[in-house]
Amino acid sequence: MRRKWWRAVPIWLATAVLVAGAAGCGDDDDGAGGGGEQAGGQEKVKTALVLPCATSDPWCKQGFDGAKALERRGEIDLEVTTSAPQDTAGVTRVLAQYAQGGNQLLLAHSTWQDAAFDVAEQFPDVNIATYAFELRDNVAILEEPIYQAAYLAGMLAGGITESNTIGGSAGQDVPLCHAELEAFEAGAKRVNKQVKMIDTYIGDWNDAAKGKQATQAQIDQGADVVIACGGGPATGMAQAIKEANISGFGYVGDMSSQAPKNLVGSVMYNLEPYFEAAVKDVRNDSFRPAKRYEFGLADGGVDLKLNDRYAVKEIPADVMRQMEQVKDQIASGEFKVPYEAGT
Amino acid sequence: MSVSQAAARLAPPLRLDRRARALLASAGAVLLSLVVGGLLVVIAGGDPVAAYRALLDGALGTPYGIGQMLVLAIPLVIIGLGLALAFRGRVYNIGAEGQLFMGALAAGVVAIFLPVGFDPLLIGAATVAGVLAGAAWGGIVGVLRARWGVNEVITSLLLNFVAILIFTYCVRRPLRAPGSPDLQGRSIQPDAALPALPDLAVHIGVFLALLLVPLAAYVISRTPFGFRVRMLGFNAEAARTAGVRSGRMVVGLMVISGGLAGLAGGLQVLGVAERLDPGISQGYGFTAIVVALLGRLNALGVLLAGLFIALLQSGGQAMSVIEGVPYAIVLAIPAVFVVFLLIADRFARGS
Amino acid sequence: MDWSEIFGPDALVVLLSTSVAFAMPTALAAVGETVAERAGVLNLGLEGMLLAGALVSFLVAYYVGSVALGTVAGVAIGVVLGALMAFLSVSLRTEQIINGIAIVLVAQGITLFVFEKLFGGEEQPTIAGISDVEVPLLHDIPGVGPVVFEQNVLFYLSLALALGVSLLLTRTRFGLSVRAVGESPAAAEATAVSVARTRWLALLVCGGMAGLGGAVLVLGQLNVFEEDVSGGRGWVAIALVIFGRWNPLLVLGGAFLFGFTDALQIRVQAVSGGIASSVPTEIFGALPYVVTLAVMVAATVLAGRDAQPAALGVPFRKGVNA
């Protein structure tokens, strides 16, 4: 059986048609670019937000809400890509495309350092903010000190637990999550010396079914207050605590609608101050050399948001008072939550 | 004589040769998929004409855009060539993704640690390490199939997961980039980074991919090895009777296709990420299966199919960015395109 | 670490019952795939069918408020995708592997788009779950009883359907035609069995089972829908079909074995307390795959012959494939 070269013709042809089409329509330009309309006396900053997931995911929703808030305030003209590709080359293309379209600020809401560096080199006049860990040129670093709020959550957990066993499940054992779980444990131990903590690392950021299994296994080992790190683990955790009727804390966004009676509260990550700072640096042309944006409890970047529908246990009043005190101490800089990144 | 019979007499049914029919059918397929893709765009609230213009502008409108498209095409073509060869010999390797990651890991380790101050040597050593690692990972599958008849589809599929876990472990613990909050491995030595072409910003691996196309075509059609592969694919029983040692062939095909996947992984580390990073691939090893099949298991076909898929994907991303068409829709459009092309191809070959 | 907290009598019941419950979506898809492959069609679209089943069942359950209707809708969308696969692979005879992958890509894109369109930027929607039901009498059977008969209704339905489809394949005329069509389509056609019709039906069954798998995952376990909620279960299911040597009961067993090692690794982490931080979690993560591989290799080495349907993946055209 001989293979005939023309069997590949359909592909040839399709490519040819597309290329011809490109030549045909490529020449008229959309005339994109230029600044936005005047608002509040200031020119709006053309901004693109690139999210690694859908906006229904807690992590991406926080990014989305932060950018939307700035849009409502008339600070920025916003374009959004959700569920962006996960490969470095793919993200690079998306970011480069936005830069080419005249955006002055790219908010890359994931750990996309390499893609950001690539694009930053091509487009030195664009401020790119991402979860980088090396400072370079025009790529600003977003720091997420969510462990500070997790410490406060841990204090409440230490007061609530009756079994003296608490649990935390995370997508991967990476510093981001490790620090959160360690701070949760440290907070609990501060108010309750007997507390034992069970950590589970699932090995998957998205699989909610595995997240649910992990929390269930912790509950079977006696855990009665739990926390999670990562979208899938957190969603699964909320379902598990609802079924077992124990207490837990939401991750990154307000998750109280998912388990209204069972969530004591949520550790919140609020991106508005981050994005606001990035916008300001574009306006003042002060993003080269790059900045490191970090807004902790003191600056409204992270917080512990309590859920007033919580109804599993009574939170002891003295623990609540202690927590409030520590919160103030963190805010004033008097106390620093230890950051344990793990190995 | 009825009217239709008369008409039939006057105008004999159109007789087209197969080539012309293939052309017509493909044109139909392109049109149909443009329409269906356009409908998806309309449903998503966009303007289809502007969206398609954005697709082409994004992929081909600027040198940088073309370069970005090529960056995506390189691994697809390289892996696709190996898979085309294996599939021809009826060895169904669907573990290219895992072989890619093993290759990337080995190439990365060499590129991070090997203390040579001479770029070509360092790059060469890292690339060879990538090929060897991919070949070895594929070889496991080949040996299991040749020695005990263990189905290669399941072993190669499951070994994907294992390879990715090994890679994840390495970038999470021993090889993690100092200071990284997430899964990111260490950077390679600056000397090990592949040079990039000016303007296009595509790494020089593009030449390697282009070189491999005629080489693969030659191996398939002109060498005794290629002949034995084709014989196995045509009739395994007859091939065995004719003295083809199918066990050795299976191992050989797995080693070659694994090696090429490993090479692609190595290039991703040396040329794209310049560090060990899970982002070096998002299912390239699976997309390459489509590339191999769409290219009709033929070297030139693989090149065209690889470029075509890369065009749709990179253009699609541009379309989503420029026209605000949700990226989710963009994901679906290449699939629609490919299916219509296959249908057209089917009609072209006559039913 | 105290192993009795995992393998002690009470702990073991918990371990086994969560394993079977969480393995169910994969098991359903795998049994459906067995039918398709026995009929000679390799359906790689399974992951997409699971995902579509998950989304549609969730939407119906969310808006209509009925888990039963949601389940039906999940099965229905699976059947529709099965029909699409059949139209492409059986009627048009285009490349099966590409058809399957295309279905996955289209399903991933469209589910994501629809969900984002409906709920984007809002709080994650959730539905009321269904509770577990103890089956009287059966529940008292020592060993099996508490593992199998303390689950929710969807679980019982799934188990019954999975077993039913197994019987369908091994004990009925339809099953006989399916097997004949997968082994030797020309011979089957000669005995007045329509290859096209049989393969169509097999793919509809396969799609329905995968759609049900998606419904069970979302309505029976999670009560929420998420991007890529199927999490690769479709691919694992395809591996399990080969693992179970195209025997539906072995496939079902394989799915539960996979679920067991998966649940085991999570439980070992919980029980061992601090071990998680000293032993790489990836070793736990690889366990299900490695165990499946090892069992597979051992079984092939011992059993020898390959059980693959002879005509798997080969399109059939009357009078041509002799």
What proportion of the residues of chain A is helical, as a percent range? 40-55%
Provide the CATH top-level class of chain C.
Mainly Alpha
The spatial strand order of the largest sheet of chain A comes to: 4-3-5-6-7-13
What percent strand of chain A?
A: 15-25%
- Strand arrangement in the largest pleated sheet of chain C: 1-2
The largest inter-chain interface, given as chain pair and residues per side, is: A-B, 60 and 75 residues
Number of helices of chain C: 14
Helix/strand/pairing category of chain C: mainly alpha
Largest sheet of chain C: 2 strands, antiparallel
What's the average pLDDT of chain A? Answer: 87
List the helices and strands and how they pair.
The complex is a heterotrimer of chains A (343), B (351) and C (322).
Chain A lengths: L8 H17 L12 E2 L2 E2 L1 E6 L7 H15 L3 E6 L6 H13 L4 E4 L4 H10 L4 E4 L8 E5 L2 H15 L4 E6 L4 H17 L4 E6 L6 H13 L4 E5 L1 H14 L2 E6 L10 E7 L2 H12 L8 E3 L7 E5 L10 H16 L11
Helix pairs in contact in A: 2-9, 3-4, 5-6, 5-10, 7-8
Chain B lengths: L2 H8 L7 H26 L4 H13 L2 H26 L7 H18 L5 H30 L3 H21 L32 H18 L1 H11 L1 H6 L4 H28 L10 H11 L4 H25 L3 H22 L3
Chain C lengths: L3 H4 L1 H30 L7 H19 L2 H25 L4 H24 L12 E3 L9 H5 L1 E3 H19 L1 H11 L1 H6 L4 H28 L10 H11 L4 H25 L2 H4 L2 H23 L19
Antiparallel strand pairs in C: 1-2
Keywords, please?
heterotrimer; A: 343 residues; alpha/beta; Rossmann fold; 6-stranded parallel beta sheet; 6-stranded mixed beta sheet; 10 helices; 14 strands; disordered N terminus; C: 322 residues; mainly alpha; ABC transporter involved in vitamin B12 uptake, BtuC; two-stranded antiparallel ribbon; 14 helices; globular
Description:
The complex is a heterotrimer of chains A (343), B (351) and C (322). Chain A is of the alpha/beta class and 343 residues long. Chain A folds into two domains: 41-143 and 272-299, Rossmann fold (3-Layer(aba) Sandwich); 146-268 and 313-332, Response regulator (Rossmann fold), CATH 3.40.50. Helices cover 41% and strands 20% of the residues of chain A. In chain A, helix 6 (175-191) links the parallel strand 8 and strand 9. In chain A, helix 2 packs across helix 9. The longest helix of chain A has 17 residues, at 9-25. Chain A is globular. In chain B, helix 3 (48-60) packs across helix 13 (299-323) and helix 4 (63-88) packs parallel to helix 8 (205-222). In chain B, 64% of the residues are buried. Chain B is globular and about 55 Å long. Residues 6-14 of chain B have low confidence and may be disordered. Chain B has a single domain (47-324), classed as Orthogonal Bundle (ABC transporter involved in vitamin B12 uptake, BtuC), CATH 1.10.3470. With 351 residues, chain B is an all-alpha fold. Chain C contains 14 helices and two strands. Chain C is mainly alpha-helical. The radius of gyration of chain C is 20 Å and the shape is globular. The mean pLDDT of chain C is 88. The chains are: A alpha/beta (343), B mainly alpha (351), C mainly alpha (322). At the A-B interface, helix 1, helix 3 and helix 4 of A face helix 2, helix 3, helix 4, helix 7 and helix 13 of B.
